[in-house]
Write a structure and sequence with these properties.
Layout lengths: L7 E3 L2 E3 L6 E6 L4 E7 L3 H18 L4 H17 L1 H12 L3 H22 L5 E3 L6 E9 L3 E4 L7 H13 L3 E4 L6 H13 L6 E4 L3 H8 L7 E5 L2 H13 L3 E5 L4 E5 L5 H12 L10 E7 H16 L19 H16 L3 E4 L3 E2 L5 E2 L2 E4 L16 E7 L2 H8 L7 E5 L3 H10 L4 E4 L18 E2 L12 E9 L4
Parallel strand pairs: 7-8, 7-10, 8-9, 10-11, 12-13, 12-19, 13-18, 17-18, 19-20
Antiparallel strand pairs: 1-2, 3-4, 5-6, 6-22, 11-21, 14-17, 15-16
Length: 480
Amino acid sequence: MSYSDVQLFIGGKWGPGGEGLAMDVLNPATEQMIGKVAVATKSDLDAALESAQLGFEEWGAMSAYTRSNILRNAAIILRERADMIAGILTLEQGKPLAQAKAEVLAGAEFIEWSAEEARRTYGLVIPARNAEVLQLTLREPVGPVAAFAPWNFPINQCVRKLAAGLAAGCSFVLKGPEDTPGSPAELVRAFVDAGVPGNTINLVYGDPPMISGHLIPHRVIRKISFTGSTQVGRQIGAMAASHMKRMTLELGGHAPVIVAEDADIEAAVKFMVLQKFRNGGQVCTSPTRFLVQQKVFDRFVEKFVKQCAELVVGDGLDPATEMGPLINRKRVDSVSELVDEAVSLGAKLCTGGNRIANKGFFYAPTVLTNVPIAARIMNEEPFGPVALINPFNTLDEALEEANRLEFGLASYAFAGSAATVAKLGKGIAAGMVSINHLGLALPEVPFGGIGDSGVGTEGGAEAVAQFLATKFVTQQTIGG
C-alpha cells in the first residue's frame, strides 16, 4: 500500500505551509518513515481563519435540506473509498486493517446520522400571554469552529466533530493529528468532493500549543471542540473560557468493569478481551480497572488470561493480526514504566509485561492482578494493552472503587439479576454505562463524560445541538 505526503487544506486548496516546513510520519509497525506532513505557521492559520469565516457565511446560508443532501453524498463517497483510506490509516496508526476499515465505515454512519439531524434543527413556538404577540425560538449555527482531533481514531474523532458541525451550518479550522495525518485528509477530501464548499473546512497540522494558542482566542472562532488528554483538556478549556467560547471537551478515562458473581463469565471475558485490546488499549473508553466478585474471581482471571495470551500481535497489514503496535516509542515507554512500577509494589503479572520484536512499537497484551491502589496505573490512564483485575466482596465495595477517581467517561458491568443490573446502572458515576454487552459509541447515542472526563457530548440527538445557538424572537402585530 502506498502513502503520500500530506498537505494543508486552506481556502479550498491543498498545499504546503507558508514556510515549507514538514514533519516525518512513521509506520509504528516498522519505525520507518512513510511520508511527511506539512506544518502550518501563524500566517497559514490566519489564512485558514479568514477562509472559515467566508465558509461559514456561504455554508450557513444554505438550507438544511441542501446541507443534508451534501452530507449524504459524503457518506457515499467515504464508503466507496473505505479500502483505500483503511490502508492509509493502518500504515500510519498501526491498528489491524479490519479495524481500520470498520472505523471508516462507522464514519460514514456518523455522517448519515448527522445528515438526518440537519433537517430537524427545529425551533419552538411558545404560547404568548398576549394574542397579538408571537414568540419563537430559532436554532442557528454558532459560527466557525476550532476542532482538535487525536491520533488514536483519526477518522472517528474527526468525523464526530465535522459531521455534526456541518449539519448545523458551522465551518471549521480542523487541527489534525501529526502522527496520523493521512486519513483525516482523506475524510476532508470526501466532504469537499461531495459538495461542501472549499472554504468551509480548513485542515492544518503543526505545533499543538502554537495552533491552539492562536486559534482559540481569535475573534473568528466561536466554538472549541477538543478530544484528548485531561491534562491538555484543562488547558484548552481554561483558554476557551477566558475568551467566552463555547466548548465540547472529550477527555481521558480510566474505565471500571464490575463483574458480579451472577454474571455470564464467558460472555464477560469475550466482550472485555475484545474491548480491552482493541487498538492496543489506546482508546479513551478502554476498560482498565476490572473489579470481579471474589466467588468468580479465579475463574474470570483464568479465562481472561488465556484469551489474552492467545491474541496475535503484529503488523496491522497482516490479516492474522488482532492487535497492532502502539503509536510511538514514548507510548511504549510510558506503559512499560507503569507496569513495572505496579509489579514492584506487589501486583501479580499474569501474562505480558514486555516489549515484543526488535522493530516496531509493540507491547504484549498484559494482565495484572491484585494491583495496589497506590500504584500509579490504578490512578493514571495507562492508554495501552494492560488490564488490571482486582477482587471485591460486596457491590458497594465495587461501586466505591469504580467511583474513586475523578474520571467518568465509560464504564462496564456484567450481572445476572435485574436488581444487580439496576443497582450498577444507577450507582456507577460515568457519562456512559454499558451492561452485559458493548453498546457505546454508536452514531445514534450520546458520547461524553463527567468530571475530569469532559464537558458536553458528541453523538446522538444532542450532537448537532452542541453547534447551535438558540435565539428568542418575540414580535407583536401592529395595526390591522
